[in-house]
Write a structure and sequence with these properties.
Blueprint lengths: L31 H22 L12 H18 L5 H6 L4 H5 L6 H16 L1 H5 L6 H13 L12
The structure holds protoporphyrin IX containing FE.
C-alpha cells in the first residue's frame, strides 16, 4: 500500500469520516471578483494553484503529467468561476457540483487540507498583482475556502481529535 495514497475508507469497509460541523455555512464571494478577473485570469489563477499542488506534500493525489494536471486545474477553474460570482460553467460541463461526493475517492485528512490551503494561500497572495483579484475581496475568498474545505475532509489520521 502506498502510504501517501491509501485506499479511500469506503474501499477499506470503514465508515467515511464526516466533519461533525456538517455542511459549510459560509458567506458567498462577491461577484465583483468575477467581474474584475474574468475567465482568463481565473484560469491562470488555478493553473498557478495546481502547479503548486503538483509540487506539494499532497502531490500524489493529483495527476502526474502536466497536461492532466492542467485539465484538473481547468475543472476547478470552472467551479470557482461560479463561486466567484460568474456563470455556472462547472454545472453546464460536468453536472451537479456534489463537491464532497466528488472528493470521496481521495483520502483527505485535516493535514492534507492544510497542505491544500498553503498552496491556495500562496496563490492568493499573488492574485491582486498577477490575476487582477480585487484587493478588498481577498479576505472573502480566503474565508470561503477555509470554511468550505472543512467539508472535503473525509478521513482521520491517527491523533486527529474530531
Ligand atoms: C474550497 C474547497 C474545494 C473546492 C471548491 C474544490 C473543488 C474541486 C473541483 C471542482 C474538482 C473537480 C471535481 C471533478 O469534476 O471531478 C476538484 C477535484 C479535486 N480536489 Fe478539490 N476542492 C476543494 C478542496 C479540496 C481539498 C481540501 C483537497 C485535498 C486536500 C482537494 C483535492 C482534490 C483532488 C485530489 C481532486 C481531483 C483532481 C483530479 O482531477 O485528478 N480539494 N476539487
Amino acid at each position: 500500500m502506498n502510504i501517501h495514497n491509501p485506499l479511500p475508507s469506503h474501499e477499506r469497509n470503514e465508515p467515511i469520516y464526516t466533519p461533525p460541523t456538517g455542511p459549510p455555512q459560509t458567506d458567498g464571494i462577491p461577484s465583483a471578483v468575477y467581474e474584475a478577473m474574468g475567465e482568463a485570469n481565473i484560469i491562470a489563477f488555478f493553473h498557478a494553484f495546481y502547479y503548486r499542488l503538483g509540487d506539494s506534500p499532497i502531490a500524489d493525489m493529483f495527476p502526474k503529467s502536466e497536461k492532466n494536471l492542467m485539465r484538473a486545474a481547468d475543472k476547478s477553474a470552472d467551479m470557482f468561476t461560479f463561486l466567484f460570482g460568474g456563470p455556472h460553467l462547472y454545472q453546464r460541463k460536468h453536472g451537479q457540483p456534489m463537491m464532497r461526493a466528488r472528493h470521496i475517492p481521495f483520502v483527505i485528512t485535516e493535514q492534507a487540507r492544510q497542505s491544500w490551503l498553503v498552496c491556495y494561500r500562496e496563490t492568493l497572495d499573488e492574485a491582486v498583482e498577477k490575476f487582477s483579484m480585487p484587493a478588498e475581496h481577498v479576505d472573502a475568498v480566503w474565508k470561503f475556502v477555509t470554511a468550505f474545505s472543512v467539508w472535503m475532509v473525509n478521513a482521520q489520521a491517527p491523533g486527529d481529535t474530531q
